[in-house]
Write a structure and sequence with these properties.
484 residues; alpha/beta; 13 strands
Amino acid sequence: MPTDPAAKGVKLERYASGSALLLRRVASGKFVAASSHLLFRATVLATLALVFLFAFHYPSLLSRSFSLVSADASSSSSSSGSSRHTSHRSLLMSSASAASLYGGEKWEKEIRRSAKPRRDGGISVLVTGAAGFVGSHCSLALRARGDGVLGLDNFNSYYDPALKRGRQRLLSDRGVVVLDADINDALLLEKLFEAVPFTHVLHLAAQAGVRYAMEAPLTYVASNVAGLVTVFETAAKHADPQPAIVWASSSSVYGLNTEAPFSEEHRTDRPASLYAATKKAGEAIAHSYNHIYGLSITGLRFFTVYGPWGRPDMAYFSFARSIVAGDPITLYADARRDFTYIDDVVKGCVGALDTAGRSTGSAKTGKKTGPAPLRVYNLGNTSPVPVTRMVAILEKLLGKKANKRVVTMPSNGDVPFTHANVSHAAHDFGYRPTTSLDAGLRHFVDWFVDYYKLDTKIAKGAASATGKKPATKKKTTAAMSASS
Ligand SMILES: NC(=O)c1ccc[n+]([C@@H]2O[C@H](COP(=O)([O-])OP(=O)(O)OC[C@H]3O[C@@H](n4cnc5c(N)ncnc54)[C@H](O)[C@@H]3O)[C@@H](O)[C@H]2O)c1
């Protein structure tokens, strides 16, 4: 210990100034702590305010899930071009699985009830794309004969989601649940396969449309390639027993072929669009899942399906709208299509489901009882019709002339003609299309006039052409475009 008072003084002085420094540091530390508390509180408050504002402006975001690869995040009723373009962005959005939204005893009870057959020997089918055109008709047909059906659809806005919601209501009225979910949501699919012993999957969910592939190519990859893999993968590894899968390929796989009618043996390596290329890729993917996992897989190549509750992006539908509205329509010279009526296609889908052999492998049980069936069939009408003739029938049915502009077909993904040979489907499950284009379009126009509550003049024109009483509800074509 130092005893010198001077040294002591120096020491005390140092001590005093050290303490003052310490006190200043402590004080400034308190100040920093206090201010960081304040800052923290302010940040929390600001975050809460932002969350509130976000939820207020986008309530739908809280009520549904987003999938990493959903074709479109929006389920609003807008069908504007801009909402379509969100699809590209939503590809990059990571999200919670719908599995976290769906669950619980009540939910499981509901989906089991929907998927439960109501007849002896009935099948239990998971229908993807059930709110779509073909999916809703197939689901209704299966339900009508007593099969169990559970639907799934992401309700994207490639075309008017209100139409998809309308189809969902039709299904709901008949006891069929359609879940709002994406086929890329593996967690949800696993949950479904664990909860329900589906005998079959009718996989129809896809990004359809040939020309839109030039605007949003990745949505095709997301739904038609990644989504297909997710469905096959979960069915192969998480379902016990594995279901038999029937899925929608497309006549577009025949691409630039000129040999007609198109037969399943013909080459399919010259797709004219990315859409066609993704369907062709799907057929190759189906081969690998059949080979490795013993999944029973049937691919159906649909040929230009049309009818009530159809797709507004397809020519017959958009032409009908343009004729009614007095807008010009652009026709490709010499284009011919094997237009196939929806009821005929539904019979083909049901026939394919009924004759699908069992899957033979099971990842869970380790069973592998030999090769499983791998099939592919054309489902067409076998009689191609010039698109100009289709327009003439519409003009007659709608009682109004089209404002036509005929141009040479550009290289935008369309092919000059399609024509199906359906002998394999006829042989294996008695597929025989029976609806002429005149009769099928008459059914379509009846529905179209009624659904859009068209004005009495159009309804009268349609009625005189169809021999029916006109719809009495009066509305203008403006109302039509608002709901479509
Ligand atoms: N309609 C035809 O002329 C035709 C011709 C050839 C092939 N196809 C194929 O038949 C199937 C059904 O076609 P459609 O005319 O009913 O089309 P659609 O667009 O009306 O039906 C497809 C449904 O799948 C849903 N969907 C799309 N991506 C999804 C995803 N990632 N997850 C969940 N749901 C998703 C859509 O919301 C839509 O409701 C499609 O695979 C299509 O490629 C149709």
